[in-house]
Amino acid sequence: MANIRFAEAVEPGNARLAERKARDEAKRAEGRPTLPSTIGEELATNPFLRCTEPEVVASASRHAGRSLAGPVDVFAEVREWKNGF
To answer: What does the alpha-carbon distance between residue 26 and residue 51 come to, in Å, rounded to a whole number?
Structure first.
């Protein structure tokens, strides 16, 4: 759930992420595991795999306080952000 909270900070407009959060919260409430995931779900909700998505790029740039040059820079900024989250 901590990873989902971070993903929400990076990409608050991601509808698939909101669905995943609700589903995982329900699983946790029932004492069920939320892992493993699928690659499809990760591609749709994991900001580290979404470094070309406009909302992720914009959030990472805001966090960095500057425009980022490309997906590698976005990934690095998201990683740094997560380290201190």
So the answer is: 28
pLDDT, tens digit (0-9, with 9 covering 90-100), for 54-81: 999 999 999 999 999 999 999 999 999 9
Q: pTM (2 decimals)?
A: 0.92
Of 36, 57, 23, 19, whose CA–CA distance to 78 is shortest? 57
Q: What is the dihedral of CA 2, 79, 56, 73, to 10 degrees?
A: 180
Cα–Cα distance between 54 and 72 in angstroms, integer?
Answer: 14
Q: What is the Cα–Cα distance from 38 to 23, expressed in whole angstroms?
A: 14
- Cβ burial of 56 (10 Å; 0-12, 13-18, 19+) is buried
